[in-house]
Design goal:
With 340 residues, the protein is an alpha/beta fold. It is 53% helix and 15% strand. 24% of the residues are buried.
């Protein structure tokens, strides 16, 4: 990876100028020997290179006074140019290697500081949209990609990137999977997403895994591999197109909700536990003191979804409440307190 980064770096103005001067010196030396000694182009180029490199095997033709004076000038000026150019080449190669190693080390340190973050496996067209959404929502995440071009593309956006195969345990551990909140398997291959899911589930059984599926027949395989949610792009696209055709306003409303933030209101999920003080309360009690909050739904422990619950609906331990509210109200609900 280091050498690849070094080759991708553009030449500095100093090195470009030095290389141009070296080429010009070789051209002048070759032309001079051709004119003064009558050497052929190849012989004159050979004589120039051996002179500039200070190897000096032998003269290809007897040198007179003019040729000797020309060689002295060529040695005094050309050897300095050649050594200066070589010094710059070595310096930039070393600096490029150091910069690459420093970047990789800094990236790893930033990843190690992450906790409760997201791991995005794959930076294709779907992965790029996922990364953009996570970035806009200010969520910490790490991109894992093994294609060098896509790795550079992700780095250009300023994302934290690991180059490697996301199905390898070593790579997932470097991405902080044991302390991650969720993993998104978004590679272009269903087989690749299946291996990623299997490996991730074996490392962190509590991690919430969302997997992309290109072919509907592979959905069950991904669920058996350990994916909590499987997204079939074709099925989802078909349902969305039908919804847009039949109920365009409802489709627009769903798109608006999916953005997460709506002015001062934020779409959030609240876990109902004994510690939060929400278990056993009714929906009416939950919303008491939070006039700007709207309860959209409840996902029960068994997976059923209650949409638009009534105010007397009781919350149970393990439920997930979907609420649209201002940030202070959401913080109050998280802490189990009420703003009166």
């Amino acid at each position: 990876m280091t050498s690849r980064l070094s080759r991708a770096a553009p030449l500095s103005p100093r090195l470009s100028a030095a290389l141009g001067l070296l080429v010009a010196t070789v051209a002048v030396g070759t032309a001079g020997y051709m004119l003064l000694s009558g050497l052929s182009f190849v012989d004159a180029l050979y004589q120039t290179v051996t002179t500039l490199s200070t190897v000096g095997f032998r003269e290809l033709a007897p040198f007179g006074t003019a040729e000797k004076l020309f060689t002295i000038v060529l040695v005094l000026l050309g050897v300095g140019v050649a050594l200066y150019t070589l010094t710059l080449v070595v310096q930039e190669a070393l600096e490029g290697d150091i910069r690459s190693r420093f970047y990789l080390r800094r990236t790893q340190l930033e990843i190690e500081r992450l906790h409760d973050h997201y791991i995005l496996c794959g930076f294709g067209r779907v992965g790029q949209e996922i990364a953009r959404e996570l970035h806009e929502r200010r969520q910490g995440f790490v991109v894992i990609e093994q294609t060098p071009e896509e790795v550079e593309h992700a780095r250009a956006f300023g994302y934290l990137v690991l180059e490697g195969d996301a199905s390898e345990e070593r790579v997932l551990l470097k991405a902080g999977l044991p302390v991650a909140r969720s993993l998104l398997a978004a590679s272009d291959s269903d087989a690749g997403n299946t291996y990623i899911t299997l490996t991730a589930r074996s490392i962190n059984p509590r991690c919430f895994i969302v997997a992309r599926c290109a072919h509907p027949l592979n959905e069950d395989k991904l669920r058996l591999a350990g994916a909590d949610r499987v997204l079939s792009l074709y099925s989802m696209g078909g349902r969305r197109m039908v919804l847009m055709a039949l109920q365009p306003l409802a489709a627009d409303f769903m798109d608006t909700l999916a953005t997460g933030r709506h002015g001062d209101l934020v779409l959030a999920e609240l876990a109902v536990t004994e510690m939060t003080g929400l278990a056993g309360q009714s929906c009416g009690q939950l919303l008491a003191g939070t006039p700007n909050a709207t309860l959209l739904g409840i996902r029960r422990v068994d997976g059923t979804l209650v949409v638009g619950p009534q105010r007397d609906e009781r919350l149970r331990d393990g439920d997930i409440v979907i609420v649209l509210a201002e940030e202070p109200d959401i913080a109050a609900l998280h802490s189990g307190t009420r703003t009166r």
